[in-house]
Amino acid sequence: MDFAATIFLMLLLLTNYTLCHGCIASERRALLRIKRHLIDSSNMLADWRTGNGDCCEWLGVFCDSGTGHVTELRLGSSNDTIALAGTHGRLKLGGKLNPALLDLKSLSYLDLSNNDFDHTRIPDWFWNLTCNLQYLNISGNHFQGNVPDFLTNQASLVLDLSFNNFTGSLPAISLNVTVLDLSNNAFSGSMSRFLCHKMHRMKLEVLSLGGNRLSGEIPDCWEKWGSLVAIELCDNNFSGTIPGSMGALTSLQSLHLRNNTLAGVMPGSLSNCTELLTLDLSANRFSGEIPPWMGERLSKLIIISLGSNMFQGRIPDQICGLTCLQILDLSHNNLSGNIPSCIKNLTAMISRNKSDGKISYKTSKGCFSDNIAVTMKGVVFDYSSTLKLIKLVDLSDNNLTGEIPEEMTRLIGLLSLNLSRNHLVGKIPGNIGAMNTLECVDLSENSLSGEIPESMNRLTFLSYLNLSCNNLSGQIPSGTQLQTFSSSSFLGTELYGPPLTNASRYSKIVAPISSNVGENVDTGTQVNCLRLFLAQQLKVIVVEKKGCSGWSSVAGDSMMSNPIVNKSIPTESLRLDLVTE
């Protein structure tokens, strides 16, 4: 072999070695320029340096094993690879974005989530990256500015821009965008330009626009969006009704419309969305009856949240056919009639889940976890990672009548039962102790009578109890954890014994608050009822008005002692104390 051939072979071998065992030199230089503009106060990118030749080994950098090109930058704080690299705490990068990112021609995955680019405006050149990217996550950075249309991306794209300060109208997207999360920004205006006038069937599977300033009606043009699996439009200013064309979304598994000003009845076309797992319409102005087809057609439902609306009529028996249902929230409506005894057929509430705590919906890009806000123990919690472990029935603040069905005690997997602020009569079911996983029981502001069942002694996980403002009588079972609750759990009744004292029985009624830490206290748990104290001689009338901060006296004098009768009558905003000598 001559000298020239030998040199050629050595160069070829060196090139192959470089391709298989190191990154491209030009891309190493690009990464160093990118680092130069970053603020890395925790020195997390210490191995990004000139003397460390193989940039494919640098933290957060991933290369194609065959070509050596950089294909992924995983610099988000939620990245498992960073955690496995032995770093401690959360990665927080700041500074500016460098256009050297454009020199990474094979980059398909970019994660800069949850860093500290505080109040930085995204430069125009940055959006050109989306032409080739398959994944872009810049969430949780307080980035500012408008977002351009995404019409040039060639590959299937997952786009997460949530938890920033982006403003302006919603961007138009190409049919290749499969996941779009623009939640918790300041986007405003209508959805019409984004949603309507599409020529082709869109590939979008997840649409999350919650926590913005979007307004107007939800457009009635969903026919081209049949791939959607999840829609999240919570916490905006949408008005009008649910459009009938949403019934074309036959793959839909999760629909969240919470906290808007939507009204009208539930359209019958939603009965076509037979894959639904989660239906959250709470905190709107929906009216009419709960349609029976919910229990007949939407058989896979795990979560129904219809609270804080204006639904009326009876709870349909067909709801009892939802054997997968774990969360049933119909609170704060105008529902009437009895609680259906067939509620015992909600078999998913009979056992406690021990598996993965997430409720997930499947897409072509993997599984995404659902979330929902529920009220437990007087506190509003937002559940996601443990959502599948929550089993709850909340029928509070309606006009329900009749007795609590004994059949309800078969739901032995329930964590929370709230039947407060209704017109329920009769006794507390004697077998309530069989529901031994209960952590929260609220039966306050009804007309329940009789004694507290001895079986309540078996509710060893109970950490929140409110039986106030009822006609309950007799001694509170002693020698149990019932004595560990505040006396406010039993006020406005004819009960006696610890924790009640003579003084506490007739003190002002304030609902018990759980010691568990949560985000927002549900002020709706404050007790409001009339307590009539009748005695031999009427001396003072005290009228107290319920305000945002509680009860305040508006007339009269303070209470005296020795009342001989203590009865409770539900009311909206006034409390009247008739006091004796």
From TrEMBL:
Annotated membrane topology: Single-pass type I membrane protein
Locations listed in the record: Cell membrane
Boundaries of every Leucine-rich repeat-containing N-terminal plant-type domain copy: 25-64
Predominant location: membrane
Gene3D superfamilies listed in its UniProt record: Ribonuclease Inhibitor
Source organism, top-level taxon: Eukaryota
InterPro entries according to UniProt: Leu-rich_rpt, Leu-rich_rpt_typical-subtyp, LRR_dom_sf, LRR_N_plant-typ, RLP23-like
Keywords, comma-separated and alphabetical: Cell membrane, Glycoprotein, Leucine-rich repeat, Membrane, Receptor, Repeat, Signal, Transmembrane, Transmembrane helix
Signal peptide bounds: 1-20
Family: Belongs to the RLP family.
Entry protein name: Leucine-rich repeat-containing N-terminal plant-type domain-containing protein
Organism: Hibiscus sabdariffa
